[in-house]
Design goal:
Layout lengths: L3 E5 L3 H13 L3 E5 L2 H7 L7 E5 L1 E2 L2 E2 H11 L4 E6 L4 H9 L4 E4 L4 H19 L1 H8 L4 E2 L2 E2 L3 H14 L5 E4 L6 H10 L8 E5 L8 H6 E2 L11 E2 L1 H4 L3 E6 L6 H13 L1 E3 L6 E3 L2 E7 L3 H6 L5 H7 L2 E4 L10 H16 L5 E2 L1 H9 L5 H15 L4 E2 L6 H4 L14 H15 L4 H8 L3 H11 L8
């Protein structure tokens, strides 16, 4: 027996029609004609998925969506409407809807949507098991991090990598979107196939169509031979569309057709070439804002974001800075043949207090530069760019008042708090060896872990 589905629509012909279609496919189906009836159904049955009309007699379908998600965060909800609008679609997506589909729709389209929604539910349900496996992991692929935010990212990436689901990676420039895409591909069943990367912002607008779709001989001036496009080159592998919101809208429409038909037609050609690839997309913009201003097509957005992975900026995970800095230091020390093998406490204070507008990529460049200019065995504050030396130390200005014992205790707690309770980083800030820090923490009754 397939999972249970709740259909909420005040038009009996639609509700009963969907019930017959779904029951024929083996689903257990309950129907309701209002928010109140739909809520009552929840008391007697657990549903994997709900199909909800946007306009109901006793309220807005998005209100029922919120209720459903509050009762069961794992339920997938598809909103149906004969009054479609981008603002409502964006609102529904923000509240957790899987898809926003316009009436009328055909049964095949709806069954396909149900299958994809249930696939996502299954993928995300595996995350709880992965938490235990990844609890002590300090990295994923080429990505490093031990902060709670990055551990959640690693768990989500690992849960979706083994599937063929579309992945949408969102994050500021420099947060590691390409590394996340590399990791998803490397841990997927398509790892032996190609990973084709397309930067939609870097390709000239007059060349991007030819690059993506290929062309036949004579398709345009200068097309002296037939050439397959990058979409064909990704066959049996993965396709990364970086900065997808920068793709011209007309090409977004063509890409959507390729994703739906799984075939591509070269520029100037008539033959459809089958393609089979796993789509990974990324953007440094707010996707909802991109949909609102028209730079990202709404229908394409719904197609590419089966699973969205949001990468946190470095300023929100400062406890990862020591781990990242150490990793970059080791890499560039070996690359450039330098003897520098550490970072002094004052330089560490600068790294931890800087806001990092360029995120991990900026930190990487700063450490490489410091390795190249350092004159001693350690990177010092003078080896860092001027922007970092202009920042205030992360440990609070002014010494705490009280006895020497009280001052020492408060200073230790401040250093721990500034590093997200990373003992190694706190020891560096305080100018202590880590065993000495542990000893002082025990003497002052400071817990080993942050208390909530």
């Amino acid at each position: 027996m397939k999972p249970a589905v709740l259909v909420v629509d005040d038009e009996p012909s639609i509700a009963d029609g969907l019930r017959l279609i779904l029951e024929r496919e083996g689903y257990a189906v309950d129907t309701a004609g209002s928010i109140a009836e739909g809520a009552a159904c929840l008391d007697s049955q657990d549903f994997a998925l709900a199909l909800v009309d946007l306009v109901l007699p006793d309220g807005d379908g998005i209100g029922l969506l919120k209720l459903l998600r509050a009762r069961d965060p794992d339920i997938e909800v598809i909103i149906m409407t004969g009054h479609g609008s981008i603002s409502k679609a964006v609102e529904a997506t923000k509240e957790g809807a899987f898809y926003f589909v316009a009436k009328p729709f055909d049964s095949g389209e709806m069954l396909t949507l149900l299958g994809k929604a249930l696939e996502r539910r299954l993928l995300l349900a595996e995350t709880s098991d992965l938490k235990r496996q990844l609890a002590e992991q300090l990295g994923y692929g080429e990505m490093l991090g031990s902060s709670p935010g990055m551990r959640r990212v690693f768990e989500l990436l690992d849960s979706v990598a083994a599937s063929d689901a579309n992945v949408f990676i969102v994050g500021e420039s420099g947060t590691g979107k390409e590394l996340a895409a590399n990791a998803v591909h490397a841990k997927s069943p398509r790892a032996e196939g190609p990973l084709v990367k397309i930067n939609c912002a870097a390709l000239p607008k007059d060349l991007i169509e030819s690059e993506l779709f290929g062309h036949v001989k004579g398709a345009f001036t200068g097309a002296t031979s037939e050439k397959p496009g990058l979409l064909e080159e990704a066959h049996k592998g993965s396709l990364l569309l970086d900065e997808i919101s920068e793709m011209p809208p007309d090409l977004q429409a063509k890409l959507l057709r390729v994703l739906e038909d799984r075939s591509v037609r070269r520029l100037g050609g008539t033959r459809a070439v089958p393609v089979d690839f796993r789509l990974i997309s990324s953007t440094n913009r707010d996707p909802d804002a991109a949909v609102r201003d028209g730079s990202l097509r709404q229908d394409l957005y719904f197609r590419i974001n089966t699973v969205t992975v949001a990468l946190p900026p470095l300023r929100e995970k400062t406890q990862d800075i020591p781990l990242l800095a150490k990793g970059f230091l080791e890499r560039f020390r070996l690359k450039h043949g330098r003897t520098v093998d550490g970072i002094d406490p004052e330089a560490f204070r600068r790294l931890l207090s800087y806001p990092w507008p360029g995120n991990v990529r900026e930190l990487e460049h700063v450490i490489e530069r410091a390795v190249l200019v350092a004159r001693g065995k350690e990177i010092t504050a003078t080896d860092l760019p001027e922007a970092l030396n202009a920042g205030a130390p992360v440990v609070s200005a002014g010494p705490p008042a009280g006895s020497l014992e009280e001052i020492e205790r408060v200073s230790i707690v401040r250093a721990l708090e500034s590093t997200g309770w990373n003992k190694q980083a706190a020891a560096v800030i305080l100018g202590l060896r880590r065993p000495t820090l542990y000893s002082k923490m025990r003497r002052h009754g400071i817990p080993q872990r942050r208390t909530t």
